[in-house]
Each structure stands twice: as C-alpha cells, then as structure tokens.
Input
Amino acid sequence: MATEKTDVVIIGMGAAGGILAAELSKSGMKVIGLERGPRLTTADFSGQDELRYFQRQELRPNAKRQPVTWRPNANARAIPLPILNYGNQAGGGTVHYGAVSWRFHDDDFRARSQTMERYGVSAIPKDSSLVDWPLTYAELEPFYDRAEYELGVSGKAGNLQGRKIDGGNVFEAPRRREYPLPPLTADQSGVIFEAGARELGYHPFSTPRAIISQSYRGRQSCTYCGFCQAFGCHVGAKSSILVTTLPEADATGNFKLLTGTMCYRVNSDNSGRVTGVSYYGPEGSNNTIEAELVILAPFIYDNTRLLLLSKTKKFPNGLANSSGQVGKHLMAHITPRVFAAFDDRFVNIYMGPSAQKHSLDDFNADNFDHSSLPFIRGGQMSVSPADLEAGPIGAAISMNPPPGIPRWGAAYRDFLAKYFARYAAVVAQTENLPYADQTIDLDPDVRDQWGLPAPRLTYDWRRPNELARIEFLFTKLEGLAAAMGATRVWRAPMGPGSPGAHHEGGTRMGNNPKTSVVNRYSQSWDIPNLFIVGSSTFPTMSGFNPTLTIQALAYMSADAIVNRYKKNPGRLA
Amino acid sequence: MSTTRRTFLVRALVGAGALAGVEQPPNAEAQNSLPTQPHSAGERHGAFFNHDDAATIAAFAERLMPGAPGKPGARDAGVLNYIDLALSGAYADLQDFYRRGLAQLDAYCRKTYHEPFVRLEAARQDEVITALEAGNATEFTWPTPQEFFNTVRTHTMEGMFADPIYGGNKDFAGWRLVGFPGAQPIYTATDMQNKQGFSRTPIVGL
Output
C-alpha cells in the first residue's frame, strides 16, 4: 500500500482528462493521472485487424470483467450489456473513435427555451426533464476554437462570424475563424450522398473530423486506409489524446500517469472537502493519493458510480449529491439506418475514415419546423458503412439483407458478394430528450473484477416523442437513399430499448445547486475542490457526437482552474 | 460480373497466392491442398472439436456460406479450422456452449429425422437451420436454438472474413468472394474517385 501527495489527481485519461492533465501540468501544478487501461502508442496500431479491434473490441472494456447492466424499467431485472462502447486505455474513446468533431448548435444550449418560444410549453413531453444549459454557445465558442486548433480538426466553415458559406454546415453557429485544416477527401459514398442531398435541396458537407487532412504540428496526415472507427490510427493522423495532449503533459515534468489502476473511492473529510482518492494498483495493491484538487473524468457510468461509492455521514446519498440528481437524466443516441445498394457502380465504402463520412444537418436540432410534427428536436444525418466500420465482418454482422433474402445460404452469399463494395448506409443520430427516470445506479447483484458493484442503467428510448422522431427520420433517410441513385433501399431493424452510443447525463450541470450536480465550470456545487468533467454533465445531448463539446468544456474548466481557482480555491462564480 | 471486377478477382487471386506463403503462419501451409473428400486436410480440427463435432460444424457452416464454382464457401475458407482454434483460445469460455449446442442439435436431428445432422441431405440441413433460427427446434434448453444459430453464424462470418492469421479466410477466400482488398495501408485520391472495383494492388494480409 502506497500513499503519495500531489496537487491534482485526475481519474481517467480520455477526451477530458488528457486535456486537463496537459493544461494543469503546464501551469505548474503537480498532476497524477489514474487510468484503468494501458498506455499504447501509434506503433501498437500497425495491425489493421478487423477481428481483433472491431469484432473482439480490444480497445474497449471487457464486458465480462467490467460489466455494465441494463434494464428497460425499474420493475425489470437488469442484464449485462454484451458490448461496451467506450475506451479502455490512456486516450479513452479518442483512440478508437471515428473522430467526428461537432460544435453544438446555438439552440442546443437552450433547447427548452427554444421549444417554448417556437411551439409553446405543451410541445415538451410532460415526463421530460428538458432544460437549458447554464452557458451559451457564445460563451463556449472560444474553447471550441481552442480545441479545434490544439487537437487538429479538418472541416469547412459554414458560418464564419455570421456569414453563411455554401459547402460548410450552414446550420452551424457562428465561428470566429476557419477550421485549422481543410476537409478530408470525400470517398464515393460521400460523392453520391452530396449529389443526392443537393437534388433534394438539402445542405450536405464533409463531416468535421479530428483527423488531419494535411500534416499538422509534426504529425502525418490521413492515408484513408479505412481502419478508423474501432481502430487506433496506424500513422497517428487521428487527433487522439495519445498523440496530442499526453505528450504535452509529459513535457512539463509535472505529470505522472499510473496505468492499470482502478479508482474505487473519492475520500472526503468532515469539512466537506475532498482529500484525494483510493485506488487498486495493477498487482492488486490498495493505494491512496492525497490531493488538493480531484477531477473525475472517466466514462459517464463511473462518475455516478464513484460518487455513490464515496458516500459518507456528511453525504449519505453519495458524494456531491445534496441535490439528489446524481445518476439521473441518462441519455444516448439512437441511430435509425437505411441501406442503399447500387447495381450500376461500385461505392467502395471501405476507403477513407469510416464514421459519418459526409453529413447534412437540415433535420437536426430545431433546424426545421416541428409545428405540424408530433415530436421536438431532430437528428444528424450522414453516410456510413454498416456499423461505422467498413470491413466485411462488420458488413456480415451489422447489415441485414433486404426483405426476401435470408441471413444465410446461397442467396445471402450472393448478396454479400455482389453488394459488399456497392452499398452505403445512411444513418440518423437522434437527439433523445432527457428523462429523470432514465438513470445510472449501483447494481445490487453484479460485481466487476475489482469486486465493485457494476453500474446499472435503467433506460428505454421507446417513448412517444422518440418513436415519432425515428419514424420521421426513417422516411427522410429512404428518400435520401433513393435520390442517391440506389437500386434497392431497405431499413435496418431498430434494436431493443437499450442505450445506443454516446452516453450523456448522471451529473448534470446547471445554474441551481438544488437541481444540478455541477456548475458551468464542471465544479461540484457541494464540494469546490471536486470537478466532474465529461458528457455526464450535459443537461441535453443534441444530435451531434459529444467529444468536441467534452473537450471544449475541459478547456473551459482548465482555464477557470488555472486563472481563477488556483488563486482563490472556492466556488467559481 | 463486370470485366473489371473479374480482372480484379483474378489479380487478387494471384496476389493472394504470392503473399500467402510469406504471410501465413507455418501451420497454414498444410492447408493449401484442396480437400478431396468431406473430412480431409482442408477441414483441420483437433484443437477443440472431436471428429464428429468437427464434421457437424463444417457441414453447418457450409450451409450458411455454401461454396460454388468461383464463389468460395465456408469449406474453401477453412471456417472449421478458424472456429476450432478460436474455441481453444480466445473463445475458450464458449466451449461448453458449443458442446451443449452440438449435443442438442444432434438430439433434435435424431428425433426429427432419425439421422445426425451430417447425414442429412442439404435441403434437410437447411430445414434444421431454419428451425434453429426461428426458435422452433425442440430438444434445446441452453443454449437456445437462436443463441446457437446466431453464434455459429457469427463465427462462420469471422472464419470467412477475419485475416488468415486466425486460421480461416484461407488464401483470402472470403475477401475474394466479396471484393475486399484487405489491410491496405493507403488509398490514393485516384482510388477514392474510382467508380469501379479496387484493382491497383493485390489483397494484403497481416
């Protein structure tokens, strides 16, 4: 058992933790990072092996050793989820993600006000806990800009200081300057998506991605190999935390990374301040770190789990949980998909970065009129391979054949042989509303490899507002696939009610300590020397992938800590 | 099939042959002789399966992905060898699943058709698989018929399409079937603009 002292301890070295490690260590603070998985390097990713990384999920948590359980409602028994869709190494999800990097819309930060102003309060489902964020897009914009330039994001502006630019996303909120790198080259699926969308009067564009289209800060540009989502990048062109901020933190001499470690408790004293953390070492040792500042930045389940496991007499309902809000408002993206097969041409969708290759934003957020529709909010649309990964195992597992063709036998073989290189999927990623009864708590029966209770999710997206949105988007996707010139168009079945990708919620941010867990700086209302950073703080989720917003919030927290909290440790106003 | 695609497949086949000897582990060499009868060297097993179970899995996988002239199937790809190796290694926790699933399949076939699965005609085997997929097969408790079907299907697809280092996808049979060029490290702007199948280089394995 070891005990050591430091200024700052950060739990989780992913999208948020890696940025905070770099920024705080550069300011002179002594930082220790705890990471559950290993620290890999670009050289570890030379094997472009679909079985190992996509099918066997080597860069993600082992669902048997680190179980997460799910039940559709509080009356059902929870069962372990078969696949866990987040990272399990230094760099977290940014190592294997598709690197899609959005700024949220202006109205994503004020979804409740926007809905009330345009459609009246009755448009909001009565059981939804839809709220505004405690900050505006304009307040976060400098940190989006910082993240894009520090990390390296490729794209084309669609709104430069209020000037709309065709070819970029004309629905985006104003940005101060262009992306640091031009858009990635479109593959054939992007070309036909672009043409089909234009024919329908939509506004398609190359998806902004944290994959460098040209060499940037000494890193090599993308080779378009296609082994992208689910894989580590074999040339380091993906702007993951491994190749961006961790080297910055290393260079300060103030940063120490402890891999293979599992934090199981945040320690606090009778005054209500946190004093550090306890963790298990890779060899099973039980250790303590004493720190002036504790930052939680693991995947969202572990924020709620750690707070609930760290309860004391002073915090009987879990640390930092005087509001009773810890674990509530779990959200996740649900992705209706339509397949398009082409008889007259190849698409070769296995070429190029694989996730959400080309996009349109016409049916996202409140970018379209919902007044005659039975739902609010929308979804982002894009063209992708079957499961955001483009190899033949992915196609065989994730692409259902069209009606009339079975999933096996000679007809299936011929279907796959003909269309593997001649198909595209068009996908929507929906903004599901927050609901207070969608929760994360501790499973009373299932424990993980460390003997800790598994996170338990209680969640079912199949609510009237969400079902109506999905049907609307399915129809738009089918129209789009037809406009792309597809010979055959068919739907993928929707899964059960379990959460999809990109989980959000559990430690919601807000303006009021009675109804939220953290303030706009991701600082606990109850405990000023505890920060909780990541998508667990999102009050609403938007139809966009969360990572760039997680990273902008991390830069915002780091800025507040370095420039204000350090001089006067207390609640940030 | 277009001329370009045919050209691609021919080139891919040549490339595969050239690379196979270099890239594959030593024990893959022995698989390169074509099977001459149902249980020959092309269906290597013995890491996990006994002879009868191996024959059943080989026949089952072949009905899921049947071979035909110019269309490599599960036997051509060595799917049995892939599953056998996986069950003795990465999927060792599924050994009991397979033992029980195969025993239940055998009981169902003997009860319904008075013959084991491998002795049934192809059309009868397809009836059995259809019943498993639909959950209609009796004699199953754990795994359920659908669980057994889905797992064998998934593993058959892995054996068809995973890199040959895992023991299946022999001579890139699966990748040749669907026109996948494998672990290419780079695609050029010209490759990305091509409306035809990719043919610039041979298939590449690990």
Summary: Chain A has a mean pLDDT of 97. Chain A has one domain: 3-565.
